[in-house]
Write a structure and sequence with these properties.
Elements: E1 3-5, E2 10-12, E3 17-21, E4 25-27, E5 32-38, H1 42-45, H2 49-59, E6 64-70, H3 74-78, E7 101-105, H4 112-121, E8 137-141, H5 143-147, E9 158-160, H6 164-176, H7 181-191, E10 195-196, E11 209-210, E12 227-228, E13 236-240, E14 242-243, H8 254-257, E15 262-263, H9 266-276, E16 282-286, H10 296-305, E17 309-312, H11 322-330, E18 335-341, H12 345-350, H13 357-369, E19 374-381, H14 388-412, E20 418-424, H15 441-455, E21 461-465, H16 468-479, H17 484-493, H18 504-511, E22 526-527, H19 532-544
Parallel strand pairs: 5-6, 5-7, 7-8, 8-9, 11-22, 13-16, 16-17, 18-19, 19-20, 20-21
Antiparallel strand pairs: 1-4, 2-3, 3-12, 9-10, 14-15
Helix pairs in contact: 2-6, 4-17, 9-10, 10-11, 13-14, 14-15
Length: about 575
């Protein structure tokens, strides 16, 4: 089978190198050649733990040589870094059309548009029926796919829907033994749970695909496989602490598709930290609910005792205990991120964000008292049943946070910055808000203006707003059916000018219209474990402003929510 090499790779010019630790190159004959494609830049792809996990699992299969491919990055080219517009693999320089199989790892729906761009650059026919035995098999997976694969289904030969640990080894075992491409695809759904072959189905052929999940994480560790200088978390060794989130915020897909949440044993996280020793002094703990890990304080203590600098993803205001904040301070965290999501108690009830203003103000005060001087606040606008008064409440809450922030900062004799990240709400599949429509762009612009006007005279407060145009495209790609593929392909032909004007009625119906709860949805054929009638009841409760309890996590059989 040849040699498996693990060199420390250097990419780029002498002036601007990309340094890596942990890349794998398999040289020799007899390997199945797989291109693992992240349809975005190197920096985005290598920041994804999911992508790195697939790379590790795939290269642990002895007959498989898995190489990475990314979108060309014009910024890298301008900086003198390696950037080949022909789209070649990082490890050996092979073009996409030279591989036996292409694996798209897709985390975000906005990257759907890059898939056809990459196939087109490689000279591979865009649509699955137009490809033959001479072309690589085109496979896709990742969380964006097991939310709703339909907008890109016509471009994909088969999907692997679920967690890679459940799917990759059995899939490649069958791929190794295949006789021909057609017979392999026709048998795949019968032999691989979680496989979806779009060409086998039509509107008259009802079916269901069961998305695959690990039962527990007792023997699993999800952590950085390749350390690199060029990520959003430079030279940081990322470790996932739990999958999912127990709190049930009604807009959040991760809180429902990963329900019930699963916790990585603390011992697994300690071993992952040990793996990072000697490679880096930076550890990033990531999950949708960092502070909900029952051993989070011990985990922080372990990292600090081993001289790691710790960083954390978003923190929940009501979970910031004295012990946890002490750990944050000891880790020399400079900026803490809190997600109130909404300004008013009414809207927090609607979205089931079970924190109150006192939780938020107390968290801000404690953080600054501990020397964490910069706060980042996530807010959403355009949420279901939102009114202008709820937007003005974002302004009032920010002012109240600033007042507490300023008082605590005086004791520290220095003042930091409060940064608002304002994001348009996008209704996502498999959430209680999957039937809601997105708020129109004119109203969103008005609400952004209310926030800017209300805070324009407040010092040390910055406001960042996500592109409203990109959010609208994101909503279409999140919620569309297979007709959305025509818009994606048209964008390629029009020089990547993605526009919804060519089919405005269709786009508006997908993006803006609220859907009755008894209407079939494009992703209904996926079984993501949470009962649809439960989501519908949650949507009704949101309209009534009623809250729901969090997922019990440990006592999983108590609520009868999951299938």
């Amino acid at each position: 089978m040849g040699k498996r090499l693990k060199p420390p790779w250097n990419y780029g010019s002498n002036k601007n190198k990309i340094l890596e630790q942990g890349a794998i190159v398999k040289k020799g004959k007899g390997f199945i050649k797989a291109a693992l494609v992240y349809p975005n830049t190197y920096k985005a792809g290598m920041s994804s733990l999911g992508f790195q996990t697939v790379y590790r699992i795939a290269n642990n299969i002895n007959f498989l040589a898995c190489e990475r491919v990314f979108m060309p990055d014009p910024k890298q080219k301008a900086q003198g870094l390696k950037c080949d517009l022909k789209v070649k693999s990082l490890e050996s320089g092979l073009t996409l059309n030279k591989f036996d199989i292409i694996l798209f790892s897709i985390s975000f729906e906005n990257d759907f548009i890059h898939i056809v761009q990459l196939l087109g650059k490689a000279g591979i026919p865009l649509r699955s029926p137009d490809r033959n035995h001479t072309h690589p098999l085109v496979v896709a997976g990742g969380v964006a796919c097991f939310l709703n694969p339909e907008p890109i289904a016509p471009f994909i030969d088969c999907f692997l829907l679920g967690e890679a640990e459940c799917l990759l080894e059995p899939f490649f075992d069958k791929f190794l033994k295949k006789i021909d491409k057609n017979s392999f695809l026709h048998s795949l759904e019968k032999i691989i749970p979680g496989a979806y072959v779009p060409a086998l189905h039509n509107d008259k052929n009802p079916f269901q695909i069961k998305v695959q999940y690990l039962k527990n994480l007792d023997t699993i560790t999800t952590a950085t496989s390749i350390l690199t200088t060029e990520t959003a978390f430079k030279d940081t060794f990322l470790i996932e602490t739990l999958k999912g989130c127990p709190h049930g915020c009604r807009f959040c897909s991760a809180g429902f598709i990963y329900r019930p949440p699963r916790i990585y044993p603390a011992e697994n996280i300690y071993r992952a930290m040990d793996t990072a020793t000697g490679k880096t002094d930076k550890i990033g703990l990531v999950s949708s609910a960092i502070a909900d890990h029952p051993d989070i304080t011990n985990i922080c203590d372990y990292g600090l005792k081993h001289n790691f600098k710790l960083s954390f993803s978003s923190l929940r205001a009501d979970k910031l205990t004295h012990e946890f904040i002490t750990a944050l301070s000891a880790a020399k965290v400079k900026t803490a991120t809190i997600a109130p999501e909404a300004g008013s108690a009414r809207m927090r009830n609607i979205i089931n964000k079970n924190i109150d203003e006192q939780n938020i103000l107390c968290a801000a005060q404690r953080l600054v008292n501990a020397g964490i001087m910069n706060l980042k606040l996530y807010f959403m606008i355009g949420l279901p049943f939102e009114q202008d008064q709820d937007i003005l409440a974002i302004v009032d809450l920010t002012k109240n946070i600033k007042s507490v922030f300023l008082e605590a900062s005086k004791k520290q004799k220095k003042i930091g910055t409060i940064t608002l990240s304002v994001n348009p709400f996008i209704p996502k599949p498999f959430t209680p808000f999957q039937w809601a429509g997105m708020t129109d762009e004119a109203t969103l612009k008005k609400r952004v203006a209310l926030i800017r006007q209300g805070l324009k005279k407040i010092a040390n407060v910055k406001i960042n707003v996500e592109s409203l145009r990109k959010a609208k495209i994101h909503a279409l790609l999140s919620r569309g059916d297979q007709k959305a593929s025509d818009l994606i392909e048209s964008a390629l032909k029009n020089g990547w000018s993605f526009t919804m004007k060519q089919n405005k009625a269709y786009c508006d119906s997908i993006v803006y219209q609220e859907t009755p709860v008894d209407t079939p949805l494009p992703w209904d054929f996926l079984d993501n474990r949470v009962k649809k009638d439960f989501l519908a009841k949650e949507f009704v409760k949101s309209r009534q402003g009623k809250k729901s309890p969090a997922c019990p996590m440990i006592d999983c059989n108590r609520c009868n929510t999951c299938i």
